[in-house]
Amino acid sequence: METAPIQPTTLRNTPSKGILDFDQKLGVLMSVLGKRTQWELADELLKRGSYELKLVTSPDTLVQSFKSWRPGPHAHDPTGDAGRTFLDCATCVLNQMGCTESSLRTIISIGSVDDLINLLPETLVTPEIERLRKRDAREEGMLVVRLATETRPPSVKEDYERGVMDQRLCYLAPDAAAVWDAVAKAGTYRQYQQCSEALEAFLALPKWQEFCREQAPDGAIALGAGSASKDLMIIESLQSLVPESRPKLAYRLVDYSIYMLTGTEAAIQTGLRDVGSWRPVEVVTLCKDFTNLKPWRHLRRPGVPAAWFINGGTIGNINEADFLNSIAKRAEVGDWLMISMDTIPEDAATPGGRERFTAELKDKYDQPYLRELLRPSLAAVWPYLDYPRSFEKALLEIEVDIASGTQRRHSAIPNSLSVEFSTAGGNKNVVLLASTRYVEQSFVDYAATDGFKKIDSIPSRKNPRYKLVAFKYEG
Ligand SMILES: C[S@@+](CC[C@H](N)C(=O)[O-])C[C@H]1O[C@@H](n2cnc3c(N)ncnc32)[C@H](O)[C@@H]1O
Is the pLDDT confidence value at 387 over 80? Predict the structure, then answer.
């Protein structure tokens, strides 16, 4: 099948001057406000925008300026009084209409028209507005990035008082992607490789192939960035299995950390370019908390089966109850959910077995690159710690311990065990990160209460305790 080439990764093809997709954006505003002419729109924006936002007050002045922000050789940036008035009033009026994303003003100014439409509350998006969308944003190398506003960001003080830091802090640092890459590639940390093996075996399962051929999902939803090579394996599988009646695939990547998200998106685009002549794949990135998913239009297409993946043992770092609940709210009956997890050896309940398991885990995690991953979390709590030695010493002194997941409230799954990474000095021992392992059947039983029924469980070849467990959502 002939397909358009994948474009280089750029955040967007922003013109050097003017407002990107300006005419279409005016169309969106006119439609939302029920106005037929640009003059009526300018008049309405000035009437409804707050008083202090108006650096110009005449609709004629505003309409005259519209001409100069249309992208082209003679375009101007909207930096003067009229430009600022337009951006501020348009943001203010859309805010009044329920569009409260913090990135709104930026998106009006440098986002694409699709970005703007995606930010509107669903009730405002009429068929007339849908028609203003670009037909194939991907061809222009666009990346849809939204800022996380729905979920409360981590509160360091509260986490310190609780004695457990929010694990999202580990990835909220500008070099998070590079640090995670070093962990994933480190020869001593075999989990990335084991997860890839289990995923590869899963993608070869006749059941998965049948799901793709018969249910024809329009792509996949990856929960967590940082594993472009696995994302590409999934995309490759969908490309070869999903019938060509789906002319385009969508790969949706959800991650709370903008740093992880953009790095992985770039790597996926590069990988797609290398692969070449496939049908188009739209890569959509959502900077959101996947334990609190909302019904965003761009998360999935209603009525089209979806395949959700959470790879790399990330499940062990998060609250599984919130996670399963969040997916169950957005899943449709017949969707598949793939969770990769580390499991507990059968003899872990015996004293000797537990000792062996503890020693194995301590050895696995007592690694310098893993300490690097904890640096942002330690830095966040550092002002509260009153640590008697230097920050670098504190990083070296982080302790690794094993505890019951439920007793320590890291996990909702009965019989789970959590590896805790904690500070070991100062006025309090604080858990910087916990990583939970499961008894597979206990996890499966728990997931069933949220409507997820186990389909299969695929172990990694090199470490049969590391598994990808596939579920079907039955509602
Ligand atoms: C361990 S790392 C990457 C694992 C990787 N996907 C793999 O397969 O090896 C976990 C990722 O999940 C993201 N993450 C953790 N909690 C999250 C949450 N509640 N919502 C969205 N992203 C989250 C982090 O920002 C980070 O990028």
Answer: yes
**For a substitution probing ligand 1, which of 256, 293, 323 has the most ligand atoms within 8 Å of its CB?**
256
DSSP summary character for residue 153: P
> Could you tell me the residue ranges of all domains in the chain?
8-134, 142-475
Q: What kind and span of H or E run contains 84? A: helix 81-96
**Dihedral (CA of 208, 309, 219, 6) sign:** negative
Residue nearest to atom 4 of ligand 1 (CA): 312
Q: Ligand 1: which residue has its CA nearest to atom 13?
A: 224
User: What CATH number matches the domain at 142-475, 3.30.420.270, 3.40.50.150, 2.70.70.10, 1.10.540.10?
Assistant: 3.40.50.150
Ordered alpha helix ranges (H), 257-307: 258-275
How do residues 316-367 score in pLDDT, each as one tens digit?
999 999 999 999 999 999 999 999 999 998 888 788 888 888 888 888 887 8
Q: 100 pLDDT band (50/70/90 cuts)?
A: confident
Cα 16 to the chain's mean position, in Å?
29
